[in-house]
Amino acid sequence: METQTLKIKEIPTNQQYWFFRTEAGSYYPDFYFNDYIAYGWDDFTNIEDLKEALHSDEKKTLLKEEFKKKYPDEKREGLAINQMLLFIDTMKIGDIVLIPSAGGDQLAIGVIKSDVYIYDNKSSEDIDDILDDEERGYKSCPYLKRRNIQWIKTIKKGKLDPHLYKLMCARNTISDASNYDMYIDRDMYPIYLKNGKVYISLRVEQKEGISALDMSNLLSSSLFILHAFEDEKIKSEIDSLEVKMMVESPGVIQFIGYAAATTILLGSISQFAFGADINFEIAGQTYSIHSNGAAQAYIDYKKEEHRHEETMEQEKNHHELDIQISNLKKSLEQMQVSIPEELKN
Question: Angle formed by the axes of helices 47-55 and 57-70, to 10°?
Fold first, then answer.
């Protein structure tokens, strides 16, 4: 079996998240296919003047007066201005942005790759004359204030974490989504490092109710396998291992803990249940579990350690491990738990 090495994504502790509306989804294809987001009120395109309004009450008052002249029918000029200033200054390179498609059927998640800039629509006039919205197949956004985005992932509504449905109902063009960070993180990356801990999400695809026995076997067998590795570092981390479950059929089981315990746990599950031999690289350090599959990992490990003193007690332990691995595999199959795609390549 070929061993893969998977480098675990590290998410910054202070990562910022934004939900950005797309005019009821009409601009979603343009934003997504052309790697940007944009904000309107195009009579205001002097970025430096706008930024000054953030730090001067006098400048902000003048901005409000000018805004009322330009857009007399806008009833919420204060909100429009604050959102415009948020777009040009508060949002930063490296922040995460989520945009919804029409009807919220799909959510795209990306990272901001540029400071705000003013789009030069004159340079694209010839192209716009040749390719209108109908020929493109989607509506072009005319807004001039833009930021480039590198899209990371798209998620269909049926696969979206239910905790994010409330965020999808936000009415403002731009909303701070940082309170939803855990749900966004695990939708972006099923395995990641943040705040010094590794987060592992296993998706439960079973549509019926979850059996209490299957859930019990999944947890108890996983912990038994961890205890089987007589490594003091792993043992010291087991007590701090957390489990968060949102298993409403389908749902998610998330393990949270320090690197040694969580990666050995995931390595064991992926290897024993799915036959995938994986090493994990976390913050420059490699964690691994090696075997020919199933219980052989532990048996080889113990035989090497006690080569000259095999005992009946050890044989009993080997048998118990076989039972626990069998229970683990059965519960994973019954609950239709899938390991992250990254482990299948």
Answer: 130
Residues 241 and 339 in one domain: yes
Both 169 and 274 in one domain: the answer is no
Q: What domain range includes position 140?
A: 14-189
Question: Is residue 126 in a domain?
Answer: yes
Q: Are residue 321 and residue 199 in the same domain, yes or no?
A: yes
Closest CA to 87 of 42, 131, 39: 39
Tokens encoding 200: 């592992």
- What pLDDT digit, counting tens, does each position of 192-251 carry? 999 999 999 888 888 777 888 888 888 888 888 787 776 677 778 888 888 888 766 578
Pairing of strands 197-204, 251-257: antiparallel
Query: For 111-121, how does the pLDDT look when each residue is reduced to its tens digit (9 = 90+)?
Result: 999 999 999 87
Residue after which a domain boundary falls, among 123, 154, 189:
189
3-state secondary structure of 337: strand
Structural element, H or E, at residue 107: strand 106-112
Of the residues 162, 189, 216, the one at which a domain ends: 189
Residue 4 lies in a domain: no
Return d(Cα 204, Cα 123) in angstroms, integer. Answer: 49
Residue 3 lies in a domain: no
**For residues 218 and 331, is the Cβ–Cβ distance under 8 A?**
yes
Contact (CB, 8 A) for 81 and 63: yes
pTM of the model: 0.83
> How many Cα atoms sit within 13 Å of 136 on the Cβ side?
17
Average pLDDT over the chain reads 84
**Contact predicate 31/38, CB 8 Å:** yes
